[in-house]
Amino acid sequence: MTNISKPGLRPANPNFSSGPCAKRPGWTPEALADAALGRSHRAKIGKAKLEQAIDLTREVLQVPADYRIGIVPASDTGAVEMALWSLLGERGVDMVAWESFGAGWVTDVVKQLKLTDARRIEAGYGELPDLSTIDFDRDVVFTWNGTTSGVRVPNGDFIPADRKGLTICDATSAAFAQKLDFDKLDVVTFSWQKALGGEGAHGMLILSPRAVERLESYKPAWPLPKIFRLTSNGKLIEGIFKGETINTPSMLCVEDYLDALGWAKSLGGLDALVARADANAKVIWDFTETSAWLDNLAKVDATRSNTSVCLTITDPDVAALDADASAAFAKGMVALLDKEGVAFDIGAYRDAPSGLRIWAGATVETSDMEALMPWLNWAFETQKATLSKAAA
Prior knowledge:
- The chain is an alpha/beta fold and 392 residues long.
- The protein folds into two domains: 29-266, 3-Layer(aba) Sandwich (Aspartate Aminotransferase, domain 2); 270-391, Aspartate Aminotransferase, domain 1.
- It has helices at residues 44-61, 75-87, 100-112, 209-217, 251-267, 270-290, 316-319, 323-340, 366-391; strands spanning 68-73, 93-97, 118-122, 139-143, 145-146, 151-152, 167-170, 187-191, 202-207, 231-232, 235-236, 294-296, 308-313, 356-359.
- Strands 1-9-8-7-4-2-3 form a seven-stranded mixed sheet, sandwiched between helices.
- Helix 1 (44-61) packs parallel to helix 5, helix 6 packs parallel to helix 9 and helix 8 (323-340) packs across helix 9.
- The chain starts with 43 loop residues before the first helix and ends with a helix.
């Protein structure tokens, strides 16, 4: 091991994972003391808490009053799959993808649903595809924020108000950190364990009146399993959007989500959450501006994520390595930071280019992000010294 000096200040909370994300500041297990444990979710107390979770979601996320909000099984994945299997097939669909999860939805639609009229509009990591090529007379599926590429759409201006198709948006690493243009979105999904640091296994499904109209007027050609069914006898199952969940939720997780929503509301709601995420991301962006070895994977500033910030190592010696060696270098940095207890889970996603991925959402304290930056330099210099020694 080299003798490169370690920074004197450490992050108070080293949790920078992109999911599950850091708990809100000050969280302790006592926050769950009022959970309705050992009670039926259909009992008055259980249903009241589920309804409260829906109402607070609407308030904090600024969801329009005529949009339905439901708690559904299987995290964001379950919510997206419900939308794809229940809504698609009525017309052609444009599948827009620029990172791993968006690419996964393309695979599901093409290879599992086997829709023949599905266009792919794709771009590589670090870039957005040409959004002007999307045909909104067709249905459109896209992620608002690319969790594994750190690239997001800057706003909803590319979506026309008079679209004929539905827009289905996976917003799991955007919700509670970025302003979602609900007027342009017909389906919005996310999970509890992302931007608010809730516990996993539960997803949220938000439907516009246009999406409800599609559900009630169109029946897919394929069978739907019970956990995907949103209608009965051609009508929306309204209970799903009033806390009557399809399957049994964890009331402990519900309590944790309520705690996170209450914290968000106490800060000032969505505007405050966005401001916190922006401040955290700016710390990283400013660091890369002066760094000789690190840069943002997102190639255009306007599309940089303020949550899942993905970084690439640009040092010439590292860039000259082959793919395996470059990945090993980045993993070595991540291991050093993990061993020091200053940053956990900040490696790039397994399908993404090698580098770092640091969560900058609202539950992270800006002071912790500031404390982390010198440690990135330390880890790089330490790993570089090891590389040089091996090459000697």
